[in-house]
């Protein structure tokens, strides 16, 4: 059994044709992508490195990392977004980029300690067992390599902003995109990382200003946050 929720895969599969529309359902991903890419490359320049993007979806992050000169593999279990990702990369002429329909755990067993960098963005809150994905990410990265996570905190503020506000008031995301019970508090994710043999190097928050409709990196990790880890 894959560590995946069939309903989640179907949900994102049905929206796959909208993945690269900067004004569509995935607009927030387009808006935050330069921020998260810039934050990661402040720790490790990606040019010439082998990178795997776990839960790549339609390839927004994977393609942007390939454009920096990294050799990128994007993996996902939702077939339609992968098809969209492949087509967009082909049309854009982006080299050093490949996609596979494979679970993180399966790739970790197949290619342990094979990647310089592992990214897992906006994915952990959509799987039944996030600790298993974190363990797989640790197994895939080389000793001393970097693993980057991003997800949603679990508290009243995140419920009001990420679900009530984003999905029901501002209509930034399709209703039902997130399930509050699957949000992870930073100490929980950090605990999964430590258990997997990763050391926490840095963290940052990602804040949204509804007036300017802009995202920015900040010290506030109460809603969206990112962790930078290294393999021991």
UniProtKB/TrEMBL annotation:
One of its GO terms (molecular function) is 3-demethylubiquinol 3-O-methyltransferase activity. It catalyses: a 3-demethylubiquinol + S-adenosyl-L-methionine = a ubiquinol + S-adenosyl-L-homocysteine + H(+); a 3-(all-trans-polyprenyl)benzene-1,2-diol + S-adenosyl-L-methionine = a 2-methoxy-6-(all-trans-polyprenyl)phenol + S-adenosyl-L-homocysteine + H(+). The keyword Methyltransferase applies. S-adenosyl-L-methionine binds at residues 36, 55, 76, 121. Keywords: Methyltransferase, S-adenosyl-L-methionine, Transferase, Ubiquinone biosynthesis. HAMAP family: UbiG. This is Ubiquinone biosynthesis O-methyltransferase. The lineage of its organism: Bacteria, Pseudomonadati, Pseudomonadota, Betaproteobacteria, Neisseriales.
């Amino acid at each position: 059994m894959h560590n995946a929720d069939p309903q989640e895969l179907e949900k994102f599969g049905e929206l796959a044709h909208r993945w690269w529309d900067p004004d569509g359902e995935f607009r927030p991903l387009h808006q935050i992508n330069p921020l998260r890419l810039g934050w990661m490359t402040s720790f490790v320049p990606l040019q010439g490195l082998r990178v795997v993007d776990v839960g790549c979806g339609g390839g927004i992050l994977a393609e942007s990392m390939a454009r920096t000169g990294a050799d990128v593999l994007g993996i996902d279990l939702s077939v339609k977004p992968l098809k969209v990702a492949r087509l967009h990369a082909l049309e854009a002429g982006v080299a050093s980029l490949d996609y596979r329909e494979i679970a993180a755990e399966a790739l970790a067993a197949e290619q342990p300690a094979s990647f310089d960098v592992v990214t897992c963005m906006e994915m952990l809150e959509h799987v039944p067992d996030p600790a298993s994905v974190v363990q797989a990410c640790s197994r895939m990265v080389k000793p001393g390599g970097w693993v980057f996570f991003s997800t949603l905190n679990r508290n009243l503020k995140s419920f009001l902003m990420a679900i009530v506000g984003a999905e029901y008031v501002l209509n930034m995301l399709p209703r039902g995109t997130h399930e509050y019970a699957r949000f992870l508090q930073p100490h929980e994710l950090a605990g999964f990382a430590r258990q997997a043999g990763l050391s926490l190097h840095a963290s940052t928050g990602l804040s949204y200003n509804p007036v300017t409709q802009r995202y920015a990196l900040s010290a506030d990790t109460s809603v969206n946050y990112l962790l930078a880890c290294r393999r021991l």
